[in-house]
């Protein structure tokens, strides 16, 4: 481990924090010097979120200290952190939905002129300052949030999963701007699961595992494997067969056949077949109609044209219950929409089961418990905090949303970006889980915002651009460059 | 201009509805004129002030069930102290009662913020506390009110019979307190904590402090409402009036979202007058009061539903 730079702008050493029985942080350290971008990495439950909360003063550490420019930090809330020159941009935009962009700036005493400069620098020159926050798409909100932070001209910028919801073109601009901040002598703490981004802009990476800082490495070519090793704790990561070849398709009618589907203004004409035992990837840039596609298949929206056939017979869904009855199950992108946050892990997994177990009377506790326990074990859900789902980490919450369908048994699973903002270990668990489900005969539609996942998790992928299917690519050919070109509509190939 | 109309469609709609209702009143009762308007204003005044207080708390993401009880405390405190007091003394008493309102509201807010017990539970408990306090001060209607106070809400302004002093009083008091707040950072903060408390906290808003201020403002308007009861009747009324549910109803009808963060004060004030006018019209038509209550409830649901339908229609391209 290299020595901490003596001129560290931010220096956190020996930070520990316990919540009841859970020791979230044991001994976490982080040093960031002027002009550096330092990646903070770690698997789910490694203590990243707790560490960020301590750095920004939301929580007080039980032990250890945080020094900013050599002085012990007395930061006790985000407003205080800002006085110390530390400005965080959180995973969820911290903007007030019912106020306009300009009022949000006024609320935080942020000047308009530098904000406008950064917003256009970041690729949204046409942003209307009088627009209500709740009328803006998520990607724009993240840009607004970042531009607001940049306008404050912080010494230390803390970026938590900033690019998770951004389309590719905006990601590039954001990375350029962040790097330029460091080159101008500021410090950046960059939290991300995406190695390509870390390789592009970070100087060093600090790796957390189980509440400990287990490594502080310089970013250089080939460092990814070492970082993964450190995050996984030496246990060799289960290798996932890459580039699987498309399996011969069954002669039976496809499980799900979509023809000429049109919904709203974004989804104009989408057709594909999804077979039993197949994981079909869906690749699209932000806002190309994928949200509408999944909503329609799940019965949340009505199609305005086209047909959906399940096992060869045409169906129309006017309610999610219709889709569920036809064996189509949606795992939404937003975990908060899928889970009962204040109920237990067990109840959350059992909810879809209730319809089956209801037997003119009480819930059969024994049978329910056995199925739920099986699902928890299969998924290796961390159940230390199982009393309330909202106290689980994001990755574990995502596992619960999938676990409930394993317990129930599933015919067609619609996964909408199931691995967003999740660490690599959990991602791999989810890939192999999806594969197991497919091997058991389920058909899986898998939308992902991370192109590299197509090779790891899917058999084929349909690429949607501008509301239409523009390409179908086998997993073995699905390298990121090919997918990217197709996603931008640059390949002329139209599927038969 | 278009944006302003879009943002205030609901309020404009309420204004049109009120105008239609007043016209209908004139048709039902051709004699309806300045004196009718005056009595309407006087009857509506305590409701309107309670509604303004409630609207502020609801905008900030809370609710205050103790509002009518606080009004009773203010009403009896003012009436007991003013009984036989000189004009100068009664002015001091009015100021004192307003401070008492601020204090009661701040106590509500501080209990919610410090105890972290849900607002609905805390203010329900405080409803009983303030009720008890009011009855301890005065166990039956009584006391008095300074004549100059009573004159503030009676009759027309400067000989203009069609402009009831009650309405002028309401407009002046509300504008004097709310407009400076609405234009300051405090106003933004009130909307911010109602809209998304976590995002507000992260934007550097002192959430707890702002919440206490919201409840204190509600207490201040409750005190004004209580005083207006005494001003209208000349005595203190220790039993809380029907202001709690009526204020919540007017807040909802006025376009303030119960979850917080959206809406203004003009809409709820118009809604108070709409609800009072409907009641007056039904009385003029000699409808059974029980049937009148059913009609009022139905109108409320219908108007809010109609608004929701219009809003969804408008969003589609």
Question: What's the short story on this structure?
Answer:
The complex is a heterodimer of chains A (496) and B (317). Chain A has helices at 48-55, 78-83, 101-107, 112-121, 138-151, 168-183, 195-201, 223-232, 290-297, 320-325, 335-338, 345-357, 365-379, 394-408, 424-439, 453-457, 480-487; strands spanning 10-19, 22-32, 37-42, 63-68, 71-72, 86-89, 156-160, 187-191, 204-209, 212-218, 256-263, 267-274, 279-283, 305-310, 313-315, 328-331, 412-416, 443-447, 460-465, 468-474.
Structural account:
The complex is a heterodimer of chains A (496) and B (317). With 496 residues, chain A is α/β, with parallel strands linked by helices. Chain A folds into 2 domains: 10-232, Rossmann fold, CATH 3.40.50; 256-487, P-loop containing nucleotide triphosphate hydrolases (Rossmann fold, 3-Layer(aba) Sandwich), CATH 3.40.50. Chain A has 17 helices and 20 strands. Chain A has helices spanning 48-55, 78-83, 101-107, 112-121, 138-151, 168-183, 195-201, 223-232, 290-297, 320-325, 335-338, 345-357, 365-379, 394-408, 424-439, 453-457, 480-487, and strands at 10-19, 22-32, 37-42, 63-68, 71-72, 86-89, 156-160, 187-191, 204-209, 212-218, 256-263, 267-274, 279-283, 305-310, 313-315, 328-331, 412-416, 443-447, 460-465, 468-474. Chain A has a 6-stranded mixed sheet with strand order 6-7-8-3-9-10. Chain B has one domain (2-315): ABC transporter involved in vitamin B12 uptake, BtuC (Orthogonal Bundle). Helix content of chain B is 76%, strand content 2%. In chain B, a hairpin with a 2-residue loop joins strand 1 (156-157) and strand 2. In chain B, helix 3 packs across helix 9, helix 3 (34-59) runs antiparallel to helix 11 and helix 4 (67-82) runs parallel beside helix 6. Chain B is globular. Chain A binds chain B through residues 77-79, 82, 88, 90, 92-99, 103-104, 106-109, 130, 265, and chain B through 3, 185, 188-189, 191-192, 194-196, 198-206, 261-262, 317.
């Amino acid at each position: 481990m290299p020595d901490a730079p003596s001129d560290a702008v931010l220096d956190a050493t020996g930070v520990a924090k316990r919540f009841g029985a859970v020791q979230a942080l044991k001994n976490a350290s982080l040093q960031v010097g002027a002009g550096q971008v330092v990646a903070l990495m770690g698997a789910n439950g490694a203590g990243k979120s707790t560490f960020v909360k301590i750095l920004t003063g939301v929580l007080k550490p039980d032990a250890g200290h945080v020094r900013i420019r050599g002085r012990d930090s007395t930061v006790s809330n985000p407003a205080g952190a800002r006085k110390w020159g530390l400005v965080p941009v959180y995973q969820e935009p911290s903007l007030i939905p019912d106020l306009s962009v300009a009022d949000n700036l006024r609320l935080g005493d942020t000047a308009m002129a530098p904000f406008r400069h950064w917003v256009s620098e970041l690729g949204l020159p046409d942003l209307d300052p009088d627009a209500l926050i709740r009328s803006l798409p998520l990607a724009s909100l993240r840009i607004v949030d970042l531009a607001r932070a940049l306008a404050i001209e912080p010494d230390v910028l803390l970026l938590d999963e900033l690019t998770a919801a951004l389309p590719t073109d905006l990601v590039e601009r954001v990375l350029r701007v962040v790097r330029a901040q460091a080159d101008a002598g500021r410090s950046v703490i960059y939290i991300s699961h995406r190695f390509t981004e870390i390789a592009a802009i970070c100087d060093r990476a600090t790796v957390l595992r189980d509440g400990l800082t287990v490594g502080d490495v310089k970013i250089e070519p080939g460092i990814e494997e070492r970082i993964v090793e450190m995050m996984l704790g030496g246990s060799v990561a289960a290798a996932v067969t890459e580039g699987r070849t498309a399996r011969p398709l069954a002669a039976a009618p496809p499980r799900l056949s979509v023809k000429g589907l049109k919904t709203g203004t974004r989804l104009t004409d989408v057709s594909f077949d999804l077979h039993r035992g197949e994981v079909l990837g869906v690749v699209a840039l932000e806002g190309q109609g994928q949200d509408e596609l999944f909503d329609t298949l799940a019965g949340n929206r009505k199609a305005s044209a086209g047909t959906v056939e399940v096992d060869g017979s045409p169906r129309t869904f006017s309610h999610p219950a219709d889709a569920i009855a036809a064996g189509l199950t949606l795992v939404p992108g937003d975990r908060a929409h899928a889970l009962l946050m204040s109920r237990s892990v067990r109840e959350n997994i059992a909810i879809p089961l209730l319809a089956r177990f209801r037997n003119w009377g009480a819930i059969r506790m024994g049978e329910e418990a056995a199925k739920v326990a099986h699902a928890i074990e299969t998924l290796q859900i961390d159940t230390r905090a199982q009393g309330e789902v909202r106290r689980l980490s994001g990755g574990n919450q995502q596992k619960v949303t999938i676990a409930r369908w394993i317990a129930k048994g599933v015919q067609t699973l619609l996964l909408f970006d199931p691995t967003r903002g999740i660490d690599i270990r959990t991602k791999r668990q989810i890939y192999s889980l999806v594969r197991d489900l497919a091997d058991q005969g389920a058909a899986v539609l898998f939308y992902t915002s991370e192109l590299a996942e197509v090779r790891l998790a899917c058999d084929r992928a349909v690429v949607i651009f501008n509301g239409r299917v523009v390409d179908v690519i086998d997993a073995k050919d699905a390298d990121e460059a090919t997918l990217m070109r197709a996603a931008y509509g640059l390949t002329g190939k139209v599927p038969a | 201009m278009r944006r302003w109309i879009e943002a205030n469609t609901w309020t404009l709609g309420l204004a049109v509805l009120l105008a239609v209702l007043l016209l209908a009143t004139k048709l039902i009762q051709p004699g309806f004129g300045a004196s009718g308007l005056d009595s309407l204003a006087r009857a509506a005044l305590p409701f309107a002030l309670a509604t303004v207080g409630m609207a502020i708390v609801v905008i900030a993401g809370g609710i205050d069930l103790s509002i009518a009880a606080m009004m009773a405390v203010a009403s009896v405190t003012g009436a007991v102290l003013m009984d036989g007091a000189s004009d100068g003394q009664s002015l001091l008493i009015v100021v004192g009662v307003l401070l008492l309102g601020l204090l009661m509201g701040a106590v509500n807010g501080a209990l919610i913020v410090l105890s972290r017990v849900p607002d609905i539970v805390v203010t329900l408990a405080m409803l009983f506390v303030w009720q008890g306090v009011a009855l301890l001060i005065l166990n039956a209607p009584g006391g008095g009110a300074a004549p100059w106070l009573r004159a503030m809400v009676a009759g027309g302004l400067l000989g203009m019979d069609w402009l009831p002093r009650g309405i002028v009083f309401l407009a002046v008091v509300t504008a004097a307190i709310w407009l400076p707040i609405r234009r300051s950072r405090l106003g933004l903060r009130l909307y911010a904590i109602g809209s998304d408390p976590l995002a507000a906290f992260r934007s550097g808003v002192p959430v707890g402090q702002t919440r206490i201020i919201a409840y204190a403002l509600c207490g201040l308007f409750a005190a004004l409402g209580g005083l207006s009861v005494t001003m209208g009747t000349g005595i203190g009324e220790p039993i809380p009036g029907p202001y709690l549910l009526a204020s919540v109803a007017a807040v909802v009808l006025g376009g303030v979202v119960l979850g917080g963060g959206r809406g203004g004060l003009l809409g709820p004030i118009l809604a108070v007058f709409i609800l009072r006018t409907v009641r007056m019209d039904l009385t003029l038509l000699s409808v059974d009061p029980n049937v009148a209550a059913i009609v009022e409830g139905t109108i409320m649901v219908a108007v809010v539903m109609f608004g929701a339908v219009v809003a969804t229609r408008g969003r589609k391209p």
